[in-house]
Amino acid sequence: MIYFLQTNINTTDASSYLPVALQVAFAVGLVIFLTVVTHLLGPKRKTSDKLQNFASGIESHGDARQPMAIKYFLTAILFVLFDVEVIFFYPYAVNFKGLGWDGFWAVLMFVGFFLCGFTYILKKGALKWED
Amino acid sequence: MTLLVIDWWLILEKALLIGGIIGLSFFIAMYTTLAERKVAAWLQDRRGPNRAGPFGIFQPLADGGKLFFKEEIIPLASNKFLFILGPALAMITALITSTVIPWAAPFITKGGNVIPMQVADVDMGILLVFSIVSVGVYGIMIGGWASNNKFSLMAAVRGASQMVSYELPMGLCLIAVLFMTGSLKMSEIVANQVQNGWHIIYQPLGFLIFFICALAECNRTPFDLPEAENELNFGYHQEYSSMKLGFYLFAEYINMFISSAVMVTLYFGGYDIPFVNEASWGLSSFWMSLISFSVLMAKISFFLFLFLWIRWTIPRFRYDQLMNLGWKKLIPLALVNMIITAAVLLLLNK
């Protein structure tokens, strides 16, 4: 028990995030204030033409929310996959000096797996943009 | 009961610091817009804005003030709540990324209290910046979707996939820096550089990749695909007017400022003054803080100038080129950089 108390003595607790919360409150307050002020200050002369969507002067046709190219969705999914893998490097990076060569070989193996997945998506053409 | 005791002096001190930093962010963002036009003019052999005040120094005030008095347009086809939320989110995330950056050497009062010139020195440090930047993607995505305009939606989807793609190599370069510091805390990253020399000496490739990613994250040329006006009119903020448009534009400049500050802190020694041992000067703590802050701002200004210089020099990438660069070149390069750094560090230590 005492051991745990000693090791934790240098780590910051939740109260060190209080200033972050304060800054978030500042930012939110400022943005709300500016939005409301400009809403009150600006003129209000709306016509039905003004409230149309702008499509370079031609009449806009239909709804914009139509199916898009699957590539964008694929990029987002691959990002989530690889970002999770990148996050696994952070605990290693912080404990890098303590883990020494043993840690290095283990991480090299992990990089190997990372590259396997990476070459797989490349070979599958998931990142091929020009059809 | 001790849990409920709040240190009001701490709150006041932090509130002043936060107010100062947010004010500074706005000030720098305003004057970067002027600098952008001046640098563009200079590179194109023009004069640039020179009517509002001497050398046009009041131009940003006029531009900013104009946004307050413009009519707010919310298109009928749009989703009203999300339409307002989008720019607000972009602005909020831009304003809170500065929270962990150490702005100057700690100020020591006469009573011996140490006041760190940093809003929050939390353990997760740089990761907090990354997580807030990730939320910034929603600002663009929500705004573009809520407009219900084909151009906006295209631009938003492009922007989102560009920003998430470049977060990967950025995170990988950072790991090589963390090998040397062993901590995510920004204060310790700076302290390590004061002691052992700037990280740019050890990580030139890492910095280059980080810088390219920073350009892409801020949607700056040559990666300003979400605002490619010849393909997408005006980009994801096409339907916006008044201060909501201002939020998007300001958020971009504040992000430039903060990403310059992050790059300086990670690779260029933060507020460290190069080539001198400032402790031997025997100056008071107040002057030390002030000088180190000025040094940090000078380094940041250089990077801001670099951002502008690149914008008016290099043409825009094509979308497939952008994606190929991010995924097929920068990610493997960053991985190799990480492995080599780890191996070299281990070889030198043993």
Report on the architecture of this protein.
The complex is a heterodimer of chains A (131) and B (350). With 131 residues, chain A is mainly alpha-helical. Chain A has a single domain (2-124), classed as Methane Monooxygenase Hydroxylase, Chain G, domain 1 (Up-down Bundle), CATH 1.20.58. Chain A has five helices and no strands. Chain A has helices at residues 2-7, 18-41, 70-87, 89-94, 96-124. The radius of gyration of chain A is 26 Å and the shape is flat. The N and C termini of chain A lie far apart (62 Å). By secondary structure, chain B is mainly α. Chain B has one domain (71-349). Helix content of chain B is 67%, strand content 3%. Chain B contains twelve helices and two strands. Chain B is globular and about 60 Å long. Chains A and B meet through helix 2, helix 3, helix 4 and helix 5 of A and helix 1, helix 3, helix 4, helix 5 and helix 10 of B.
